[in-house]
Amino acid sequence: MAGNRRLYSFNGSLYKMTGVQKVLLDIHHAVSGTYEAYIAGTIPFEHIHKDMGVKQSEYKRVRNPFMFYRSIVIVHERKYLWVFWLLNHLLLQRIKIVYIHHNIFSNLRRASIMPHTVVSISDRCTENLTQFFKVPSSHIHKIHNCVADIHPPRHRIPDGDTVTLLYPARINDVKRQPEIVERLRGHLNSNVRILFAGDGPLLEQLQTVTAGSSQFISMGYVSDIPSLMQKCDYMLLFSKHEGLPITLIEAAMCGLPIVCNDVGGNTEIAVDGKNAFVVNDWESLAATLNRLSETSSARYGEMSEASRTIYEEHYTFDTFKKAYLALLDNLD
């Protein structure tokens, strides 16, 4: 039992708000009542993204490597695993390391020093760990990401001619928003509208390719994605790769039907023919989006209800909290 030990959730990119930081916060909130829990990072407190809502009393900036002595450290970035390995093996810091495998990777296998305890967030992440990184199955613990329930009203059935899809994600090459605009422009019916919510390195490029368009709209960073979801008809995600997207869980929580491709853990949340349309090429994506207006009210209602049921059965904060406490309490 490790109940009285200090616990740090470590991430070196607390200046931005992505799915990784959301999971870090969820873990921190899940364990804070049981452990002496802190969020640890490399940046000044003032530079932490405001939407993380981190209190100064719960943040520890890493200045002294000995601060982690005999603590539990949950590491959210693979590139820092070697640092904690060195702290244990050269400085004898006796740290219990828990690594969260947030995505699927195909590089730096030999430089990735995996600890004894690894959390996989999806089946595809587990395959990546066992097949590429050669992590023993006994070292892997599958725990889904979660979303705290806001108890949204039953999602509305579209009542207009326009079909609005929300694409909430960091604007980058993996999420490929500018490419989506270029690929779909001229191939969608005039009643299909896609809202891109987020910021990132390709934001300026996205703003350029969507300038003047009423069909492709770049909204920039939006802090309250679930509220925006409730004003849209479908959730859209068409990434190159994924771990287990928080935005898909948010869509399920809001009872929103989904359009996505089969990468990473997407289909553990978005089940084709049940609460989602799963497509894997550009032609099929355009055809699917153009057919959305033909979905009957009854069918849309069934898909909405199925999304909410999937959330309630697998992705609640309570389920997430119990799983992490069980894992951490048995590290010793």
Topology:
Layout: E1 6-10, H1 19-31, E2 36-41, E3 59-61, E4 72-75, H2 81-89, E5 96-101, E6 117-120, H3 123-132, E7 140-142, E8 163-168, H4 177-184, E9 192-197, H5 203-210, E10 216-220, H6 225-229, E11 234-237, H7 246-253, E12 258-260, H8 266-269, E13 276-278, H9 282-291, H10 297-314, H11 317-329
Parallel strand pairs: 1-2, 1-4, 2-3, 4-5, 5-6, 6-7, 8-9, 8-11, 9-10, 11-12, 12-13
Helix pairs in contact: 1-11, 4-5, 7-10
What does this protein structure show overall?
This protein is an alpha/beta fold and 332 residues long. The protein has 11 helices and 13 strands. The strands form 2 sheets. Strands 3-2-1-4-5-6-7 form a 7-stranded parallel β-sheet. Strands 10-9-8-11-12-13 form a 6-stranded parallel β-sheet, with helices on both faces. The radius of gyration is 21 Å and the shape is elongated. The termini are close together.
